[in-house]
Specification:
Blueprint (H helix, E strand, L loop, with lengths): L2 E6 L11 H8 L1 E10 L5 E13 L2 E12 L3 E12 L4 E12 L4 E10 L4 E12 L4 E10 L5 E13 L9 E6 L3 E4 L4 E12 L2 E13 L4 E15 L2 E11 L4 E5 L3 E3 L15
Antiparallel strand pairs: 1-2, 2-3, 3-4, 4-5, 5-6, 6-7, 7-8, 8-9, 9-10, 10-11, 10-12, 11-13, 12-13, 13-14, 14-15, 15-16, 16-17, 16-18
Amino acid sequence: MKKIFLVLSIFLAIGTPLLAEEQQQQNEKFQGFNLQGYGDNGKKTWDVNGDTADIKGSQVTLSNVVANSYGDEKINVTAQKGTIDQTSGQMQLEKDVVITSEKGTQLMTNSLDWNRKQDLVKTKDDVLITDDAKGLTASGTGMEAHPGLQNAQLKEDVTVRVNTAAAKEDPSYVTITSDGPMTLDQAQSMAVFEKNVVAFQGGKTLKADRMEVYFDNAKSTIKEMICLGNVEIVQGENQTFADKAVYNATNQKLTLSGRPKLIMNTQQGKDGASAFGN
């Protein structure tokens, strides 16, 4: 059984005596709040701190929330306001919510529901995720994720910008949009885009029903892109169609399969077409 320890620092002002009802209301408000959770081994698994606390039954409303989760990776969460249900373990965070993982991945949104028992966070608001290690920025509307951000899903209107160059000092970015959802799997170093996927880089555009992007963690770049369903590549007046396209970033090779069709403007010479990702 998890043990929960509640520590309250109470500072009472000296002044005119209060009426009974006023005293009851005053006693529900505290300054300096710390709530901690421990596992069966006695090791602390999480804590929540706030500048002030308004306690009504099992509901605790906090201001200037700072929370930490201590698992395989330490996670820090901050927000201007938070409400905790001490019975269910649910937490709702509001205004300037920021989750930062120990590895540096950061998520920003305006509201967040955190279920500590399920180790799951959700929001219906706009979300921004940044991962400097991969040179990746992702935004969208609506999200489900684990606090460590090892696995996150953006629901709608997804935009991702990621570096495709091996040299960080000379980045080359590709921007990918989709109707969503987009699933980011940090453990597998991959992202999956669904519905009306469009990738832009320079003068090249790639479209597909689904796109799988695999990252090279050592080089912090894209390693491979697999595009499935109604694939279309456009570069200037040149068009390429296929059922499937695989781009290998190591050898900069694009392989088409499933009824490939190329429409090329030969007037453009050797620069008429090039592999996506170059």
